[in-house]
Amino acid sequence: MLTELTHQKNCKKNAVITDYHTGEVACSSCGAVSSQQIVDTGSETFGLTGEDYQNNSRVGRKISLKMVDMGLSTIIESQDKDVTGKALSNENRRMFYRLRMWDRNSRSAVSIKSFQKAFTLLDGISAKLALPESVVEHTAYLFRKVAAKKILTGRSTATMICATTYITCRLSNTPRTLQDIAEAGNIKKKNLQRTYRFLAKELEIYPEAYNPTEFVTRIAKAIYMSEKTERLAFRILKVATEKNISTSKNPMTMAAAAIHLASVLNGEKVSQLRISEASHISAVTIRDRTKEIKSKIGGEIVG
Predict the structure, then answer these.
(1) pLDDT at site 10
(2) Sign of CA dihedral 80, 84, 85, 88
(3) Average pLDDT in the 198-205 region?
(4) Which range has the worst mean pLDDT, 7-11, 190-194, 279-283?
(5) Quick check: 257 and 293 in contact, CB under 8 A?
(6) CATH architecture of 1-60
(7) Residue 249 per-residue DSSP state
(8) Are 136 and 169 spatial neighbours (Cβ–Cβ below 8 Å)?
(9) What superfamily in CATH does domain 212-300 come from?
(10) Where in the sequence of the chain do the CATH 2.20.25 domains occur?
(11) Residue 176, Cβ neighbours under 10 Å: how many?
(12) Chain segment 212-258, per-residue pLDDT in tens
């Protein structure tokens, strides 16, 4: 700042006064003013009230892909008056009439209606499954990508948004099963599976399978299992992974079988029916997987 001031020879170099109201920097001796103003680093609360004032921000709400207009909505008042309350001229009145008509027609487009239905359902699914905001935003991004490919025609919007939600959960390693999303979206699991395979092929996305250990705690809490048995279930799955037993297996099935085997080894009385209800896996499947794990890893379980 000092180099930009045209000081006199007898002025002190450090005799500088800063006016934070006008943003000016001036010399206290000769009165020379810098041509460059300072940057105001204070809070932006001018003209705001309520919640916006408390947040010290006047930038409005954030941009979000899960909103139909991405948070950049336009509101055109129906009154033909300007900011001072004066009536608009005939030319401006006709111009704003056309703008309102274009805005109304854009809101009634088929794609906009699909977005409204899909993102409303997405909010409900995220609330039921406690999905993080990052997963919701990525799901909205994938759905917009699917809409851009023009493959929504003739397909259920609910099934498509549920399938994109499941894809995002797989990509972000958020443990949610097909059954969880199907129940949250009130659709059939078979339809969700078919749509998921279709979208994965169209988008060329092939996410990795879940790790069975991600579902152990969920099942253990649902059946009120002891922490000791839960730790043993983790150990069983670790050995099973090293032996490649869990390869190409349903991760929820492997987790349920490991919990059942751990409860038997620790002498904890937990029925297969309770584990089946908590994991949505049939008791027969759990029993078969338990036998397979026990026969292949044997004494290494408690070793």
Answers:
(1) 56
(2) negative
(3) 90
(4) 7-11
(5) yes
(6) Single Sheet (2.20)
(7) S
(8) no
(9) Cyclin-like (1.10.472.10)
(10) 1-60
(11) 21
(12) 988 999 999 999 889 999 999 999 998 888 888 888 888 999 999 99
Backbone angles phi, psi at 148, to 5 degrees: -65, -30
Residue 259 DSSP SS3: helix
Measured CA to CA, the distance from residue 101 to residue 192 in angstroms comes to 39
Half-sphere exposure of 167 (CA within 13 A, CB side): 29
Q: Which of 220, 242, 249, 246 shows the shortest CA–CA distance to 232?
A: 220
CA–CA distance, 220 with 268 (Å, rounded to integer) = 12
What is the per-residue pLDDT across 50-102, written as a single tens digit (0 to 9) for each? 544 445 554 555 666 777 656 556 666 777 777 777 888 888 888 888 887 77
**Choice among 35-44, 209-218, 293-302 with the minimum mean pLDDT:** 35-44
**Domain limits, CATH 1.10.472.10, in the chain:** 110-203, 212-300
At 138, the amino acid letter reads: H
Crossing angle of helices 283-297/227-242, nearest 10°? 70
CATH number belonging to domain 110-203:
1.10.472.10
Assign residue 70 a region: left if phi > 0, alpha if psi is -120 to 50, beta otherwise? left
Are 216 and 240 contacting, i.e. CB atoms less than 8 angstroms apart? no
Judge if pTM exceeds 0.85: no
Q: What is the DSSP track for 24-65?
A: EEEETTT--B-SSPPPP-S---TT--HHHHHTT--S-SPP-T
